[in-house]
TrEMBL record, chain A:
Protein keywords: Membrane, Transmembrane, Transmembrane helix
Keyword Membrane included in the entry's annotation: yes
Xref: InterPro entries: DUF6691
Organism, as annotated: Zobellia uliginosa
Protein name: Sulphur transport domain-containing protein
Pfam families in the record: DUF6691
Segments passing through the bilayer: 38-57, 78-98, 104-131
Keyword Transmembrane helix: yes
Automatic annotation (TrEMBL), chain B:
Transmembrane domains' residue ranges: 12-28, 62-81, 121-143, 163-185
Pfam families (alphabetical): Sulf_transp
Protein name: Sulphur transport domain-containing protein
InterPro entries for the chain: Sulf_transp_TsuA/YedE
Length: 137, 186
């Protein structure tokens, strides 16, 4: 039963991303062409509200549902892994038109060929794990 | 009810995505979809090949449950919450795509030119899907997160690394969209 809340959050997430059209290849293409404000509005408003929300959670020392202090892990300090990894991710994002969240969601919308993309993404993650110690971080 | 069935505007969708992040933080977790790809590697036995995959994947069951929900959410959204409205793309975008050989842009969520089985299983089409997926999977782990972990959560938490990663997302995305897509599809 403790998983049911995660199932509901996932369902909500899936519905929002389809209804916002953020799962659409076309919307990603249009975003990278700077031909619409739509995706920038979605990400921008999510981040602005997110900054305010996380600030408020910290400010008022809100406890998690289990009564623990809310802690967000800071990301490791580095430059090269973020710029290189991010660029590689961006190449794939603009080609597939989907990042990991939408990949799963699109399976639900009936685009089963997305399973090929997901399998390849798992393979990409696996190869990163193999090469991790040889890559600059 | 009509406004639910039509596409939702950005100022509704964006804040609802924030809500997803806040729920997960309130539940003591974090919003990160690409982590599940690593979990799948571990379940598949990748721990035999790299330390990176040696962790207790059962601690990630909550996140796999989010994925299962997301799939169900996608199903519900297209089958019960949509009126079949076309995506209201910029006419310029539609024209640019026509020049690349994409017809009826916006009438479905994804272009059949890439995702219909006929195309997906051609040699070129299969290569496109595999390369795209591989780049996403490799890049997101190298960068330590994807759109949910960096662009939404990281930026909301004012993390400089996430800003660098998002700049990277755009370097790669702009390169693909402006230079490579015309070579791949022209």
């Amino acid at each position: 039963m403790k998983f049911i809340k995660f199932l509901f959050v996932g369902i909500f997430f899936g519905i929002v991303l389809v209804k916002s059209e953020a799962v659409s290849w076309y919307r990603i293409y249009e975003m990278f062409k700077f031909q619409s404000f739509h995706m920038y509005g979605i990400i921008g408003s999510a981040v602005v509200l997110g900054i305010i929300s996380i600030w408020a959670l910290k400010k008022f020392k809100v406890k998690s549902i289990e009564g623990n202090e809310i802690k967000l892990m800071p990301k490791d300090k580095s430059f090269i892994r973020y710029i290189l990894g991010g660029s590689i991710f961006g190449l794939g994002w603009a080609l597939a038109g989907a990042c990991p969240g939408p990949m799963y969601i699109l399976i639900g919308t009936g685009v089963y060929s997305m399973l090929i993309v997901i399998a390849a993404a798992v393979l990409g993650t696996f190869v990163y794990g193999l090469l991790k110690n040889k890559l600059p971080h | 009810m009509d406004s639910i069935l039509q596409p939702w505007p950005w100022y509704v969708s964006g804040p609802l995505i924030t809500l997803v992040m806040i729920f997960l933080i309130y539940f003591g977790k974090t919003f990160g979809m690409s982590s599940n790809l690593r979990t799948l590697c571990t379940i598949g036995g990748a721990g035999k090949y790299s330390d990176f995959f040696r962790f207790d994947w059962k601690a990630q069951k909550w996140n796999l449950t989010v994925v299962l929900g997301a799939i169900i959410g996608g199903f519900i959204a297209v089958n019960f919450l949509s009126d079949g409205s076309a995506i209201d793309l910029n006419p310029e975008t539609i024209k640019d795509l026509q020049e690349l050989g994409f017809n009826n842009a916006g009438s479905t969520l994804l272009p059949g030119e890439i995702y219909d089985w006929d195309n997906a299983l051609s040699i070129k089409g299969l290569a496109i899907l595999i390369i795209a997926g591989f780049l996403v999977g490799f890049g997101t782990r190298y960068a330590g997160g994807c759109t949910s972990g960096h662009a939404i959560t990281g930026l909301s938490n004012l993390q400089l690394p996430s800003l660098i990663a998002v700049i990277g997302f755009f370097i790669g995305g702009l390169l693909m969209t402006h230079l490579l897509l015309p070579l791949i599809f022209a």
